[in-house]
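A common beginner's mistake is to predict each chain separately and then try to dock the pieces by hand. The better habit, illustrated here, is to supply every component at once so that their relative placement is modeled jointly.
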Amino acid sequence: DTAVSQTPKYLVTQMGNDKSIKCEQNLGHDTMYWYKQDSKKFLKIMFSYNNKELIINETVPNRFSPKSPDKAHLNLHINSLELGDSAVYFCASRLQGRQSPLHFGNGTRLTVT
Amino acid sequence: AQRVTQPEKLLSVFKGAPVELKCNYSYSGSPELFWYVQYSRQRLQLLLRHISRESIKGFTADLNKGETSFHLKKPFAQEEDSAMYYCALQPAGKLIFGQGTTLQVKP
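With all components supplied together, the output reads:
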């Protein structure tokens, strides 16, 4: 099944912990993204990697560190979690080029208590 | 500044009524515009893109460069159209989303 898959689907953790979210795509895409969807359903780009190189890094606290071991994977590590980090995090991928759409994962709902 | 504005947070219509979800953008270059949809408990997925000029699930969207708009339209709404709709602008490979509009189609 060709798709963008991310794990875990749900993540509940306490403030101050460190956690990771993994993402993998088997669509042969060369560009991957992390988006954050807040409680008001607003989607904001966080990072983008093209062929393992960071190309977009929005204003995100440096507690968030993306890692791309290869172009099919983009993981997100979050240090010292805060209450405000609670959100749904979406991984996405695409082929670089005009009008190439994003393909999204199912999302990871992170709850920080 | 590059920006996408969807002025309506919620649009509620009855089944069979026409639907128009508004989207305005701000971008100085040649825009790449998309509509994405998120059905309940499903992933965000592409609905349509302006370059294709196609109709998907009865929805169409026309790019109006003069009004900088890319409104999504459907002549007769169905209950299964109930979902969250996002308009998006893609400058330089970075997809910028509007705030989203929840479409609620009542029976």
